[in-house]
Every structure is written in structure tokens, then in C-alpha cells.
Amino acid sequence: MKKKFKALFFTLAAIAICAFLPKGNTLTVNAAESYSVEYVGGTYDAWRYQPGTSFDEPKGHGPLGELMLKLKDGDTVIVFQGDTAPKTNLDLGSVKLNNLTVHQGVQVVVFTGGINECYVLAGAFAAINGDVTTAHIYGPTTCTFNNNVLDMYWHMEDSPSSNISCNGTVGYFNASYASSGSYWAAFYSIAKGQHIIKDGKYNVPSWAYGTEEDYLKTKNAGAAPGTTTPSNPGSDEYDSVPKTGDSNTVLLLFCAAILSFTASAILRRKESN
Amino acid sequence: MNTFKRLLSVLFAVLAAVCLIAAIAILLRRHAEDAHADRLLESLRPSEAQSQPIPSLGEIADILASSETPSVEATPSEPSATLPEPEPVPEPVENPYKAAYLANADMAAWIQIPDTPVDYPVMWTPRDEEYYLLRGFDGKSNQNGCLILDTDSCVNPLTTNLIIHGHNMKSGEMFGSLMKYQNEEYYQAHKEIILYTPECQRNYEVIAVFPSQVYKKKDKVFKFYQFFRADTEEEFDYFYNNIKNLSLYDTGVTAEFGDHFLTLSTCAYHVTNGRFVVIAKETEPGDAYYPIEK
User: DSSP secondary-structure letter at A63?
Assistant: First the structure.
């Protein structure tokens, strides 16, 4: 009887909290999703998306705005080559993607809130915004990372001609031949904006390298390189735009009242037993 | 131990009572504020007789043309009949929101989306953009606040884009109904927006609807809230291509360099600092008004 009473109270309290919680505070757990994105010309002339890992235009596709409503931290986005050159950047908002793959032949400037694994395939022409934990670049390609990269792997072509640069810092850089897998070079803690590969030639000044210890420190801190030192004060500030959300004070007070009442009732019940 | 439990039980009960009383007190206060604001706004809205649909310039021109036709036919031999008809210049009319303009000089316009709750004054305070964010039309504290025109926007001289911010109230007040534009059917039924400025009535048609967000200063992305003027075609194209790209559905409305826009923005919760945006393009002009002082 006692257990039933307790369970009833907790269930009622949980239902009340869920019912009263405003949309902004919704408690949801969603599995990671994959989305494919392509720039579709013709009447659309815009970035369009489909759920899944392949883009099949005749199946129908949705606008980027709709994707932004669905996209959440941990999702995967695969960018495919469209039938025309994009007129606009691919803005994926501030979510932190688990995986971003830029396919062959894609021209794209992509904005994200960060990427865990980033793959830039051969023949792509890409600029990536957002800190990257691990980047795999397959030559020949042209690719610019505008923020920091923790681990960068360049899978080189036999006669390297790629253009790869990073405007942030690079924690660890490893280059190996894609065909044989044989190792070519590795460097640690490359200074901000100094990681430049032009026409396949590595142009990093000797002073710009750090040590493996520096890299491990950053890696163990769990941050992308460069984020531990303030590079540009105020750069993480948000733009000044009026905040136009509704206040949740009343709902939170009601929730607190229900919880307190439940706790009080349970204690009283225990005591009387 | 029992005493401790009893004490804890009493403390929780007191806490529950305090929270409940505080919540009820806030609700009652808000209700009183809302009732006051509703009464005030109702008094500022034009009466039924005043709000009869006033024909637009085009309609007036049509009426004048049709009324003149018989007289032209009746005197075909007059030499003046061969001269081009002069463009009819309609008389300005009284601003239906004259009382509101006179009541508060901070009012920049009155916005109306027919058949929706959006029927409010729009305040413009360059000295402090957020002055009316939590204040009513009379400057008194109010949770709903007022709709505010971004201080980088201006109705006279008119900037390319007017951005209006409003609270996304759960009650549906202010811009609480704006999220309904996610549904294309809702858009189809509410695509017209009217802005009554001191000088004239401006009519708009919704061109794009999309979720967005407030970005960090360092983010070099399309920021809808930073577009106010298009001095060059490139600036216009950047804005236009991006809003069409982001729009949740194709409205079929197009625009070209030189057009004017109205952007309605409210908070949304799909991401941190999310915003929901409805952008409309100005269509044919409405009535011209007498100066407010007259």
C-alpha cells in the first residue's frame, strides 16, 4: 500500500512536470539521425535535404529551413554534388555534428557549431566553419578549415596537388599516401593560421610547430586546440538581438510546489507508518 | 529521527505553499496587467465606423476612371478628349491610428495581420531599443511588452528592411501566433500584412518563412537581423537568395532590387537563441495620410 501510494505520487508529479514544462524546456532524447544535402538548381535553386545517407532527387526533398528545425547535436550530414554551383552557403546553425562528409565534386562553404568527424573527399572544394575534432582529407582537394582542428589526416595523392589550410590551430597533422598507406610526415601543435599546404607543398615555418606534450595537454583537456587560450576576446559573445521568449517563472513555481508537496506527503506517510 | 522527518515534512509543505502562492500572485498580477493593456489598446484601435475598408490608390483610380468614362463618351468632339488623362491624385485621408500616435510619440507604426491576434502598436526607441520589451504602450510594466522596431530600421526615411521583434507568448499574444506560419495552409490564409505608418498605409505579402537563430559575433553566416539596407544589387541578392533558400516552403512571391521588406522575428526553441522569422515584401501602396499634427 505504502509503495503504491509513493508510486502514485511520483507518477502524478512526473506527469504534472511534463505537462507544464514549456516547449523551450522539453525533455527529449532522440537518436542521432543522418541527413543528405544537395544544392538543387532549376526552380528550387537552393540547398535541399533528405533524411538518410543518399540523395535521390526524384524522391522529393525539403528546404534547408526545415532541416535546421530537425538537426540536433550528434547528427550526421552528408553533402552531395548538385547539378549547379551553389549561390548560397550551407548554414547548418549551431549544432555540433558527429559527422560531416563532403563528397567528390562538391563546392561548399559550410557553417556548423562544431564537428566530431569531418571527411572531405577527393575533388571537393570546401570551406568548413566550426571546430573539428578529427578531419580526414582525401587528395586532390581544396579545403580550408576556418576554426581549430584537433587531429588532421591527409590521405595524399601520389603526386600531391591539394590545397589545404587551417585558419585556426592544428593539434596533430598526419600525412600518408592514400594508395599505399605509407607514412609521409607528422607534426604536432601547429600555430594558428600557419597550417598551409599549397599545390601539394607543405609550407609551415619551423617556429610554428609545438611538441607532442602540448598536443596531449590539449587533447586530454577535451578541447579542440586553441580553445584553451582566449584568441579573440568577445568572439564567443552573441550578437545583440532583443530576447523575445516567454517567461517560465509561473510554470517552474507550480512544478516546485508539486514536488515539495509530494516530498512532504511522502515524509508524512512514512512517519505515520 | 522522527522529529527531523516531521520538521522536513513541514518545511516541504511550507515551501509548496510559498511556491503556490507566488505563482498565483504572479498570475493575478499578469492578468491585471494584461486586462489594463487590452483596455488601452482597444481604446487606441479605430472604431468600427472608422475601420471600414478604405479603397486603395489603385481602387480609387479605377473608380475615378469608371465614373469619368460616360462624360468622355458624351463629348467625343471636345479637343481635350485627345489629350492624355491626368493621373488622379487621391486626397490624403485621416490616419486611423492618429489617437495612438498622439498618445505616445514612441509609436512608429501599427501592425495588423488580418484574422490573427497581431493587431498592435510598434514602438521605436533609438535611445534604448529594449525599452518596450517588458513595458506596455503606456510605459507601465507588462510581461507581454510591445512589438519593437529594430533601432537600425526606420519608417521615415524608409529602410530596405524593417525588422520588428515581438515576444512569443504562450497565450498567443504579441508574436505568439507567428510560429503557425510553419504550416503552409496558415500562410495561405494569412499572407497579407498591413503596416500603418504616420505617412501612409503599407501593404506587404509574405515571401519567406524560416527558423533561424542569433549567432555569435564571430560567425560569418547569413544573419537576417543584420539586413536593413541594400545599397547594391549584390547586397540585395545575398539577402534574397538566403531567405528563399531557408524558407520552409515556396511562397511563389519574388522580389527584385529596390523592393522593401518587413521582417517579423520572435523567439523559437529549436536551438539555443533560436528565432522564427516571417519576411514580407511590400506590394502596392495604400492610403496616404494627413500629417498627424493636422
Answer: E
The pLDDT, as a whole number, for residue A268 is 82
Residues of A in contact with B216 (CB under 8 A): 94, 235-239
The answer to whether residues A161 and A184 touch, using CB atoms and an 8 Å cutoff, is no
Say yes or no for a CB contact (<8 Å) between B175 and A66: no
pLDDT score, position A234: 47
Has residue A257 got a pLDDT over 90?
Answer: no
- Rounded to whole angstroms, how far apart are CA atoms B198 and B108? 7
Domain range summary for chain B, segments of one domain joined by +:
98-288
Nearest C-alpha in B relative to A111: B221
Name the pairing type of β-strands A183-190 and A76-80: unpaired
Q: What is the pLDDT of residues A239-250, one digit of tens each?
A: 889 888 887 888
Is A145 within 8 Å of chain B by CB? Answer: no
Q: Which residue has the cell 508574436?
A: B175
Probe site for chain B from A241, A251, A267, A272 (most B CB atoms < 10 A): A241
Which set of grid coordinates corresponds to residue A268? 508524512
Spell B4-16 as b/e; 16+ CB within 10 A means b.
Answer: eeeeebeebbebb
- Contact status of A186 with chain B (Cβ, < 8 Å): no
Query: Which residues is A238 bridged to in the sheet?
Result: B216
3-state secondary structure of A70: helix
Fold of B98-288: Sortase; Chain: A; (2.40.260)
pLDDT score, position B76:
41
Q: What ipTM does the predicted assembly reach?
A: 0.74
Three-class DSSP labels, chain B: CHHHHHHHHHHHHHHHHHHHHHHHHHHHHHHHHHHHHHHHHHHHCCCCCCCCCCCCHHHHHHHHHHHHHHHHHHCCCCHHHHCCCCCCCCCCECCCCHHHHHHCCCEEEEEECCCCCCEEEEECCCCCCCCCCCECCCCCECCCCCEEECCCCCECCECCEEEEECCECCCCCECCCHHHHHCHHHHHHCCEEEEECCCEEEEEEEEEEEEEECCECCCCCCCHHHCCCCCCHHHHHHHHHHHHHHCCCCCCCCCCCCCCEEEEEEEECCCCCEEEEEEEEEEEEEEEECCCCC
Beta bridge partners of B201: B196
Residue A157: pLDDT over 70:
yes
Amino acid in the structure at residue B167: H
- pTM of the entire predicted model: 0.72
pLDDT of residue B72: 35
pLDDT tens figures, A72-130: 899 999 999 888 888 889 999 888 999 999 999 899 999 998 999 999 999 999 999 99
Alpha helices in chain A (DSSP H): 2-20, 64-70, 212-220, 249-272
What residues have CB less than 8 Å from B134, skipping those under 6 apart?
Answer: B141, B142, B143, B145
CB-CB neighbours of A135 under 10 Å? 24
Q: Is residue B53 scored above 50 in pLDDT?
A: no
| Coil vs helix vs strand at A271 | helix
